[in-house]
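=== Structure Prediction Worksheet ===
Name of assembly: unnamed complex
Input type: mixed (protein and possibly other molecules)
Chain count: two
Listed entries:
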Amino acid sequence: MNTLLKVLKYQSRDAARSRWLIAYAAFFMLVSEVLLRFSADPMKVQLSLVSVVLFLVPLVSIVFGTVYLYNAREFIELLLAQPVNRRQLYGGLYLGLTLPLVLAFVIGLGTPFLLHGSDGSAIGTLAWLLTSGVVLTCVFTGIASLIALRCEDRLRGLGAAIGAWMLLTVVYDGFVLFVLAAFSSYPLEHAALGLMLANPIDIARVSLLLRFDGAAMMGYTGAVFLDFFGKEYGMAVTAAALSLWVTMPLLFGMRAFARRDF
Amino acid sequence: MIEPLVRIANLGKAFGSLPVLRSVDLVARSGRVLAIVGPNGAGKTTLIKCLLGLTHPDAGEITFGGSRVTGEEGYRSRIGYMPQIARYPENLTGAELLAMLQDLRGAGTPLDTELIQLLELEPSLAKPLRVLSGGTRQKVNAVMAFLFSPELLVLDEPTAGLDPLSSRILKDKILAARASGRSFIVTSHIMNELEELADDVAFMLEGRALFVGTLLELKRITAQTTLERAIATMMRRGVLTEAA
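=== Predicted Assembly ===
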């Protein structure tokens, strides 16, 4: 067993006992359970959950991740004083933070659907919803590690984390709308596509709504996207863009971790 | 002359524009206790962190057992580290923390668990670290440093937060380990404590090692009878050199 797995084992054991994480799982369980009781159609419930997932998963991942890593500072120093490889240690810390969040999300959101018994197509879209949440978790814990590593002061780091989330969730949409409105006399299809691919939450939203055949609800970028790529090709493009969003913060974080002074 | 266990040569480190270590030279010899003393901000902890590979020095080199440590990690299996009072993952128990270190260090080495009995730590190890008092966590730190019977033990303020009895037990443990040939690098603000433990002293001020030598030599050149007075004299002189 190498260093990465050993660190992961204890780090995830610690994170999994965190009350915040348990509350996170309980929240998703409650929301999907309540929605399922109100509506007989699991597809409709999942469509309502899309917004909750896109809003909450990035927020919790980035805030929990940043706080967790700041609290682990002294623990990381202890680990670095052991005969371990820094890159492997970083991998262990990242996965030890991400896996418990992923499990809490999947178990929390998925369990009520399993208990209520859903048909095949509903399970398919549920899997897609869960996958998007998992990928968003990986993206935002990666950004959280990058912030916690690059920013010495924990208050500023936490501010940067919330700022990054606000930027990608709220400000970005406003910015896109502004651009589209301000330059409405120009053909903006390709610019809109570029803007969408630059925001992981947007990518997740579009790829989810493509699955739900909710083209009408996708708004401008979604409609353009479907028109430009078509469904199958579009899926591949979103998957590629999202995996870039997972790996880039991770690689930058690993480099920062390897060079950093503790 | 035999090669010292640790040799630090011309070590330099700056955080941004602030120099923390300025061309530090010192050695730690086998079977001896080296005390690093100096006021807050003198660079003691940074020096230790460079030795452990936590901080990357800008200049100079560190050798451990004759080979350079830069970019290496294997040498750390021969070092036990007791950090200053630290917070660890609060939901893990002390026993899990020790198990994790064993996992990371690899099985095979016989474990030195004597301190667990001497400090009566067994009941506390079953509890999550978050409920332990500062002193108890410090005891867990001490156990971790001695656990793998390392050649070199690096202790940063080892008795801070310990009650007199535990502090006595820890110091006796240090002396016994030294008698069996282990080496120590210790920092502390309590001069009486270092007086009892130290064979050699490195005095640091503003990032420089102004004196490295035996305790007796330090007392001789300062014409003082205790370490505390000798260090006070050194600090006054250091301030004078800075001013000149």
